[in-house]
Amino acid sequence: MSNTCPLLSNANCTVETCPLSCAQVEYLPTLAGNAVYAAIFCLLLVAQIGLGIRYKTWGFMVGMVCGLILEVVGYAGRIMLHDNPFDFNNFIIYLVPLTIAPAFLAGALYLCLSRIIIVHGPQISRFSPRTYAITFMTSDFISLVLQGAGGGIAATADDHSGSETGRAIMVAGVVFQVVSLLTFMLLWLEFVIRLRKTGEEVKDARFIDLRRTKKFVWFQYALGVAVVLVFIRSVYRVAELQQGFDGPIANDEVSFMILEGPMIILAVLAMTILSPGIAFGGKWNSATWSIKQSRDAAFTANGSSMEDIQKHPA
Fold it and tell me: Can you tell me where the transmembrane regions are (predicted)?
């Protein structure tokens, strides 16, 4: 909303009686475009629930479903904003869900790398699958908390100063997300380089058939594309929020309709067509780490196993 508008309640404003420069965004959000995006996200939500149940990819499904629900809510808020662009509640219903939704989606994507490493062979990676999973899930949680807290402060602020404080915290959360995604991409690239230098005999023999399937190979490309798309969207959000709610990017619908919705739609679509459940051929839950598995691997390396020790105690 423009700073030139009087700081009065605009509850009685309509498009006919008040200028859009006094609205929450200085344009009338397209009804058709936002309705189409909302419908697409609804379809992707149903697909992800079905795939998650079918292949039991629970952790991945939770992240995707939470993110997609927020996307649907956010675009519903934009549809409401089309009906009344002066209503602050409509603005918050659009702003907060669409800002934090990709954090849940990124969390789902992070889960995939540790399993990819296990399929190829943990010994190839610089860090253990457990380290990757815990590190990036923790960073994603921090990003989510910052964005959520910032959104909450902005939503409940009584003045411009409070709103700006909330916006600044949201910026910090999205910046943290951008740094996390960039680090993730660099470490993944480093793993790919190490992988290309590794012979097949060094890789995990349990998953040799899986590694040779086209679905698994293409899944890795699809995951890479999805991460890049979420990264592009997050960089856009940083630029938008950094300028403030009155900034030119925040009030430009064309850039929003190109760099927000489509980036996330294409990312989720890639992870739907080549979902981990399909790509792993039912071995998603086999390609995981746990504290017990880590201990077993260590004992196996010494020529024994936990089961042997339990059967033949000292």
Answer: 35-53, 60-79, 91-113, 134-157, 169-195, 216-236, 256-280
CB proximity list for 95: less than 8 A, separation 6 or greater: 74, 77, 151, 154
Tell me how long the chain is. Answer: 314
Distant-in-sequence, close-in-space partners of 265: CB < 8 Å, separation ≥ 6: 37, 40, 41, 44
Contact assessment for residue 71 and residue 43, using Cβ atoms and an 8 Å cutoff: no
Question: How confident is the prediction for the chain on average, in pLDDT?
Answer: 88
What pTM was estimated for this model as a whole?
0.87
CATH number of 23-289: 1.20.1070
Q: What is the DSSP letter of 28?
A: -
More confident residue, 192 or 15: 192
Residue among 66, 133, 71, 135 at smallest CA distance from 98: 71
The 10s digit of each residue's pLDDT in 105-127 is 999 999 999 999 999 999 999 99
